[in-house]
Amino acid sequence: MSAVMKDAVSVCRVLLVRYLWVDALCIIQHAHFTICAMSSPSCHQGFLGRRQVTLDVAFRSTLYPPVQGTYTLILTGLHKKVEYPFDPHSIELRNSPWNKRGWVFQEQALSTRKLFFGGRIVPL
Description:
alpha+beta; Heterokaryon incompatibility domain-containing protein; HET; 18% strand; signal; two-stranded antiparallel ribbon
C-alpha cells in the first residue's frame, strides 16, 4: 500500500470513517470528504509526515536600506489556533504539487468537503 493511502487510512480512522474509497469516482459517488494531499509529490510520499519546523523571513530596514538579512523562525511548540476560513489562494496551496495535477480542477469544483494536508498547514 502506498504512503499516501496509509496516511488516508489513518485520517479515516481518526475521523471514525469505516470505509475508504480510493478512486476518481469518489466525487461522483457522493463521498463524505475528499482528502487533498497538497505536500505529496507522489503516492510514495505520505502527507502526515514531519512538518517544516523553520521559516526564513527576509527583511530590509526602511530607515537604512543597506541593512538587510533573514530571520529564521523556529517552531518551539504547538498552538491550538485555527485560522478560518482557509484562503484558497494561499501561497502553499498555489505552489503545492497537488495543485499541478490534472484532476484537481474536478476535486475543487465538485467535492462538497475537502481536507487539505500541507507541508506547513492543515486547514480545516
